């Protein structure tokens, strides 16, 4: 059989797209312009409803703040000791005026409620802050005192864990512990003389800062690694036969001739 090579040419198929306009007629539903108008109306209603909800929330926030502060800022309330008598009388009057305004202004806006609440908080926020400081101050005093005691004990009794650190460096930790302890004692003494409605002399934020600074200072010294033990020298074992080089050879006994010690034979 004979084969003949035939060259095959592939033809490229070209596609042409033509836009065909489609016009909808006699379709069910709302026409496009009217539908867009209704959608815009719905969006506007949603925005208006959200504004109404937020306004009610701000109104409730103001009302709750008035009732809460009136109760807690009274002489027997939780915040009573943290607000001066003269300031309390003025603040109570402001709360009464705010309550009257709240019920006499039914068309007040969200912004008006927010501004009225911020005005009252200029007096109430410092009172609440002093109360919170007083509540957590004992915990921070205990935490800072514990940090001082722990690092001081580690420096005074280094033991095997910190025994490799030089005494000069450990004495720096002890010195720093004494300084922080003296600062804490002085601040506590000043705080004890202040009435609770005055700005505190011993702030929790300051104790937190002192606590972190002391920990960082001491840890930088205590993290010094132990020196590595010296490497042991390996003893080379002598090769076979070399162990007998330095040995002194033993003297062999000299044999005596036969008949020695008797009479000579002529």
Counted by DSSP, the helix tally is 6
Radius of gyration: 49 Å
Total number of β-strand segments? 0
Task: Give the helix/strand class.
Answer: mainly alpha
Please mark out the parts with pLDDT under 50 across 5 or more consecutive residues, or reply none.
244-266
| H/E element sequence | HHHHHH
Task: Give the overall silhouette.
Answer: flat
- Estimated share of beta-strand residues: under 5%
- Largest β-sheet summary: none
Textual characterization of the structure:
By secondary structure, the protein is an all-alpha fold. 59% of the residues lie in helices and 0% in strands. The chain has six helices and no strands. It has helices spanning 32-72, 85-104, 110-156, 159-162, 167-193, 204-222. The longest helix is centred in the middle third of the chain and has 47 residues, at 110-156. The chain starts with 31 loop residues before the first helix and ends in a 44-residue tail after the last helix. Residues 244-266 have low confidence and may be disordered.
What attributes characterize this protein structure?
266 residues, single chain, mainly alpha, flat
Question: How do the helices and strands line up, and which of them pair or pack?
Answer:
Elements: H1 32-72, H2 85-104, H3 110-156, H4 159-162, H5 167-193, H6 204-222
Compose a concise summary of this entry.
With 266 residues, this protein is mainly α. The protein is built from 6 helices and no strands.
């Amino acid at each position: 059989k004979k084969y003949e090579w035939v060259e095959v040419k592939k033809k490229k198929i070209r596609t042409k797209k033509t836009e065909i306009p489609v016009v909808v007629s006699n379709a069910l539903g709302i026409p496009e312009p009217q539908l867009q108008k209704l959608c815009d109306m719905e969006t506007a209603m949603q925005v208006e409803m959200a504004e109404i909800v937020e306004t009610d929330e701000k109104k409730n926030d103001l009302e709750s703040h008035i009732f809460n502060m009136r109760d807690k800022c009274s002489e027997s309330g939780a915040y009573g000791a943290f607000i001066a008598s003269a300031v309390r009388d003025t603040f109570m009057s402001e709360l009464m005026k705010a309550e009257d305004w709240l019920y006499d202004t039914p068309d007040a806006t969200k912004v008006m409620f927010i501004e009225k609440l911020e005005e009252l908080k200029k007096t109430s926020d410092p009172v609440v802050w002093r109360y919170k400081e007083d509540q957590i101050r004992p915990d921070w005093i205990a935490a800072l005192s514990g940090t001082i005691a722990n690092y001081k004990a580690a420096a005074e009794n280094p033991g095997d864990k910190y025994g490799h650190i030089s005494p000069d460096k450990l004495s720096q930790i002890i010195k720093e512990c004494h300084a922080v302890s003296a600062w804490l004692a002085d601040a506590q003494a000043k705080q004890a003389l202040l009435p609770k409605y005055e700005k505190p002399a011993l702030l929790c934020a300051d104790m937190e800062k002192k606590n972190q600074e002391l920990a960082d200072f001491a840890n930088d010294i205590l993290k010094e690694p132990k020196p590595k033990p010296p490497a042991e020298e390996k003893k080379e074992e002598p090769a076979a036969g070399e162990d007998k080089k330095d040995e002194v050879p033993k003297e062999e006994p000299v044999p005596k001739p036969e008949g020695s010690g008797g009479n000579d034979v002529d």
